[in-house]
Amino acid sequence: MNGALTLGTRDGATIEMAQAAGEENFFLFGLTAQNVADSQGWYNPYWHYENEPETRAALDMIFSDHFSRKEPGVFNELRDTLLDERRPLHAPRGLEIVSRRGPEAG
User: Fold this and answer.
1) Do 101 and 4 touch, CB atoms closer than 8 A?
2) pTM of the predicted model over 0.90
3) Measured between alpha carbons, how far is residue 95 from residues 9, 19, 25, 32, 106 in Å?
4) pLDDT per position as a tens digit, 47-91
5) Which of 43, 50, 69, 104 sits a CA distance of 20 to 30 A from 34?
Protein backbone atom coordinates (compact mmCIF):
# COMPACT_ATOMS: atom_id res chain seq x y z
CA MET A 1 0.00 0.00 0.00
CA ASN A 2 1.31 3.45 -0.91
CA GLY A 3 0.25 6.71 0.63
CA ALA A 4 1.27 10.27 1.32
CA LEU A 5 0.67 13.01 3.81
CA THR A 6 -0.23 16.20 1.99
CA LEU A 7 -0.34 19.58 3.69
CA GLY A 8 -2.43 22.29 2.15
CA THR A 9 -5.79 23.95 2.01
CA ARG A 10 -8.90 22.19 0.78
CA ASP A 11 -8.84 23.65 -2.71
CA GLY A 12 -7.39 22.94 -6.13
CA ALA A 13 -5.18 19.88 -6.18
CA THR A 14 -6.28 18.55 -2.78
CA ILE A 15 -9.90 18.40 -3.97
CA GLU A 16 -8.78 16.51 -7.08
CA MET A 17 -6.68 14.13 -4.97
CA ALA A 18 -9.61 13.41 -2.65
CA GLN A 19 -11.86 12.72 -5.63
CA ALA A 20 -9.29 10.38 -7.20
CA ALA A 21 -8.51 8.51 -3.97
CA GLY A 22 -12.08 8.57 -2.69
CA GLU A 23 -13.30 10.82 0.11
CA GLU A 24 -13.24 7.84 2.49
CA ASN A 25 -9.43 7.72 2.02
CA PHE A 26 -8.87 11.43 2.45
CA PHE A 27 -8.32 12.80 5.93
CA LEU A 28 -8.37 16.56 6.27
CA PHE A 29 -6.97 18.08 9.41
CA GLY A 30 -6.75 21.72 10.22
CA LEU A 31 -8.64 24.45 8.49
CA THR A 32 -10.26 24.82 5.10
CA ALA A 33 -9.30 27.80 2.94
CA GLN A 34 -12.53 29.51 4.00
CA ASN A 35 -11.82 28.80 7.69
CA VAL A 36 -8.41 30.46 7.31
CA ALA A 37 -9.93 33.51 5.62
CA ASP A 38 -12.59 33.76 8.33
CA SER A 39 -10.04 33.53 11.17
CA GLN A 40 -7.70 36.32 10.02
CA GLY A 41 -8.73 38.71 12.79
CA TRP A 42 -8.43 36.39 15.79
CA TYR A 43 -6.36 33.24 15.14
CA ASN A 44 -2.91 33.13 16.72
CA PRO A 45 -0.83 30.06 15.75
CA TYR A 46 1.83 31.06 18.28
CA TRP A 47 -0.59 30.08 21.08
CA HIS A 48 -0.28 26.43 20.01
CA TYR A 49 3.52 26.65 20.00
CA GLU A 50 3.55 28.13 23.51
CA ASN A 51 0.90 25.83 25.02
CA GLU A 52 1.26 22.45 23.32
CA PRO A 53 4.55 20.65 24.07
CA GLU A 54 4.13 18.18 21.20
CA THR A 55 3.52 20.99 18.73
CA ARG A 56 6.57 22.88 20.00
CA ALA A 57 8.78 19.76 19.78
CA ALA A 58 7.65 18.96 16.23
CA LEU A 59 8.12 22.52 15.00
CA ASP A 60 11.47 22.89 16.74
CA MET A 61 12.68 19.75 14.96
CA ILE A 62 11.54 21.10 11.60
CA PHE A 63 13.08 24.51 12.25
CA SER A 64 16.40 22.97 13.37
CA ASP A 65 16.99 21.78 9.78
CA HIS A 66 16.70 18.14 10.90
CA PHE A 67 14.66 17.40 7.76
CA SER A 68 16.47 19.83 5.47
CA ARG A 69 20.16 19.26 6.05
CA LYS A 70 20.92 19.87 2.38
CA GLU A 71 18.91 23.11 2.40
CA PRO A 72 19.54 24.84 5.74
CA GLY A 73 17.03 27.55 6.51
CA VAL A 74 14.47 26.39 3.95
CA PHE A 75 11.81 26.45 6.68
CA ASN A 76 12.67 29.92 8.04
CA GLU A 77 9.77 31.57 6.25
CA LEU A 78 7.42 28.88 7.56
CA ARG A 79 8.70 29.53 11.10
CA ASP A 80 8.29 33.26 10.71
CA THR A 81 4.79 32.92 9.27
CA LEU A 82 3.58 30.58 12.00
CA LEU A 83 5.20 32.21 14.98
CA ASP A 84 4.92 35.94 14.24
CA GLU A 85 1.34 37.02 14.84
CA ARG A 86 1.98 40.32 13.03
CA ARG A 87 2.38 38.50 9.71
CA PRO A 88 -0.71 37.48 7.74
CA LEU A 89 -1.36 33.75 7.71
CA HIS A 90 -0.68 32.37 4.23
CA ALA A 91 1.08 29.43 2.62
CA PRO A 92 4.78 30.19 2.99
CA ARG A 93 7.30 29.63 0.21
CA GLY A 94 9.09 26.91 2.22
CA LEU A 95 6.02 24.70 2.08
CA GLU A 96 5.89 25.02 -1.70
CA ILE A 97 9.57 24.08 -2.00
CA VAL A 98 9.07 20.91 0.07
CA SER A 99 6.08 19.83 -1.99
CA ARG A 100 8.14 20.03 -5.21
CA ARG A 101 11.12 18.03 -3.95
CA GLY A 102 11.43 14.34 -4.64
CA PRO A 103 12.08 11.52 -2.15
CA GLU A 104 15.83 11.84 -2.63
CA ALA A 105 15.79 15.35 -1.12
CA GLY A 106 16.69 15.55 2.51
Assistant:
1) no
2) no
3) 12, 23, 23, 17, 14
4) 888 899 998 999 999 999 998 999 999 999 888 888 875 555 554
5) 50
